[in-house]
Write a structure and sequence with these properties.
The structure is a homodimer of 424-residue chains. Chain A is built from 14 helices and 16 strands. With 424 residues, the first copy, chain A, is α/β, with parallel strands linked by helices. Chain A folds into two domains: 233 residues, Aldehyde Dehydrogenase, Chain A, domain 1 (3-Layer(aba) Sandwich); 147 residues, Aldehyde Dehydrogenase, Chain A, domain 2 (3-Layer(aba) Sandwich). The longest helix of chain A has 20 residues. At the A-B interface, helix 10, helix 14, strand 13 and strand 16 of A face helix 10, helix 14, strand 13 and strand 16 of B. Chains A, B: It is found in: Cytoplasm. Chains A, B: Pathway: Amino-acid biosynthesis; L-proline biosynthesis; L-glutamate 5-semialdehyde from L-glutamate: step 2/2.
Chain lengths: 424, 424
Amino acid sequence: MATIVDVEIDPTALIAALGRHARIAAGALGRLSTADKRRGLIAMARAIRGAEAAILAANAIDMANAEKAGLSSAMLDRLNLTPDRVAAMADGVATIATLKDPVGETIDETVPANGIHLSRVRVPIGVIGIIYESRPNVTADAAALCIGSGNAVILRGGSEAVESNRAIHAALVEGLKDAGLPAEAVQLVPTTDRAAVGAMLAGEGVIDMVVPRGGKGLVARVQAEARVPVLAHLDGINHVFVHASADPAMAETIVVNAKMRRTGICGAMETLLIDRDYPRAADLIAALAATGCEVRGDDAARALAPDIAPAAKSDWDTEYLEAIASVAIVDGLDGALAHIARHGSHHTDAIVAEDATVAERFLGEVDSAIVLWNASTQFADGGEFGLGAEIGIATGRLHARGPVALEGLTTYKWIGRGTGQVRA
Amino acid sequence: MATIVDVEIDPTALIAALGRHARIAAGALGRLSTADKRRGLIAMARAIRGAEAAILAANAIDMANAEKAGLSSAMLDRLNLTPDRVAAMADGVATIATLKDPVGETIDETVPANGIHLSRVRVPIGVIGIIYESRPNVTADAAALCIGSGNAVILRGGSEAVESNRAIHAALVEGLKDAGLPAEAVQLVPTTDRAAVGAMLAGEGVIDMVVPRGGKGLVARVQAEARVPVLAHLDGINHVFVHASADPAMAETIVVNAKMRRTGICGAMETLLIDRDYPRAADLIAALAATGCEVRGDDAARALAPDIAPAAKSDWDTEYLEAIASVAIVDGLDGALAHIARHGSHHTDAIVAEDATVAERFLGEVDSAIVLWNASTQFADGGEFGLGAEIGIATGRLHARGPVALEGLTTYKWIGRGTGQVRA
């Protein structure tokens, strides 16, 4: 198998050329029926299954190179494909074919005084750029979500997964062709030159929206450089606030789950806020510590639980993504709201309370993409939200927020049907 | 009356300080009931009426300075306020109080398998920046739309309207205070230093969305420099396509209205596309020319109407905003679609046709924020669309498109109400 060759090509010209093809494909995709898109997705899933051997062989090259380069075991695990993982990738693509197609949906209709029948109808955004790191399954996931929502996609994967991505992309294109869909609907940037990422981020008019998928470094770079809209979250500094009225058993279960179920996901709790009037604070901190979590508290928390470490000022602004939590004692709901307003990252915050008035104020006033009452922050996930999948979780304030799947990859147009109206 | 003094202050620090106050005010506004916001708007309208003398006196200073500076009569007219115009400004603010409040609206609800009751609820965006030119009524219009949708606003008007804007802003603040709303909800940048605009455009985390209101130069600068999302349109290169099946009387009425009702608005037709098979093309061109419109045609159009001027290549990409139109003869629907895809600006495009199949293809395939069938492009307006007002018309692909009023100034959050769920 040939390894990729970085030919000398101006990255702006390269991305512009990919974009021109993608724009034409997007025009065709936007006109497809739901049945056509589903046929395409099913063919893409079938092609991945059929290319299992090629994909695994390509992945073996990436794995060998990655081992030589001394990548961490966590990175090697993210990169590694197995027959099961290839099957799961194909299943994921096929699943998108079962989701509700948002394109063509009428958002609302009105007939204003001028008598023109107006409707707002969902349409695809156009050309989506995906910039991602080592997980090769993103190649299939992201492509499927874009095709399912009628968008063309330009994929730019990590250099360590280049062979795997090429093999998966080849299968996806084969599936598109089998179904009679334009092959240019899913394009893979054919160079690992980092300047190509810059060209994608600068691609106004070429790429309509960029979705970064990967670590904080990648997301921060994309947000800093992008001249096109970005759908992303940088941090998940998520809080669970245990109110005085909380059921102690529920509080313990939710706090332990929110922190410890999986510590590395963006929906994990990082800071526990306990109401000064909550009577079982010491027990709650002890229960969290007993799971193996390192707990770092403020003075009031350490007065209740002297064994925990002191929290530094920076702890309140830290996304640990590991078995560490900060704990602060706050003055009721207002103390919790003030802490979250100051330190939160607008991702996911939860309250545990039996008092519905307090809970509703929390849900209303916490300015985050996802706010939860009596449920673990670990539910922040498109699958758990009934979306069937997700292209990512967004903490920006415009367009789509929280878990984003097919609908978030659409926009709308106004359609007016008249009978000869002219404006007075 | 004192004229504004440009004190030496770092524009970034200035905008950050305004933004901090605005962010706090936005928090308070986000929690207001519809009734409270309406009370605020009505008080703002009353305060404008009460300040009529002060506003007119301030405007007289701006007008005198503008005349001294030799501004064009069109610019002087935009700047000029009269008792009628002040009353219209107050009425406009009061009208916003009658519109449906989008904040708090449940977009959809679902209870996925985990049993958490999920709803998506509209919330204000936060802090909106408005950058505008000579019309002082934008100060009141934009502030009212932002308050009506629960957003704080930072206003940056043109230097030629500085005294008028200050007087209107003072009235708006008085109204806010009268109604018990935070005065910092509507802020006016207290300097005409152009660097303040740059600081607003760079204000990530300070300003959530910028709306430029003014000429193409302003919009282009804002789009080029902004690091925050921009809601705007640059061009309105709008087309009317007259299909072979069009009713000739309707075609003539719509084409003349679309071009000539008001030539200077963004919804005006700039290019007329006539189907080669439309039998009355010569009459249509003659009718348009007879209104005093300068018509510039391609060779095929000139073969039908030899008196018209030849169109240059640049004509197809020109927004005249005056009594000039370009005319091209195209090969049916596909020719029209290709022309619009190449030269359109995604604003408003219309088809005149009796053939519903052709019309529906046009509505589906033209990639513009507004597409119309048998109606004049001059209807591109929030008031005509039943929105009651508009903050602007957007041709971007994300968030809101077409005429944008209160709903386009909101986003949503996910609210989950559980009963102790933790994730498996």
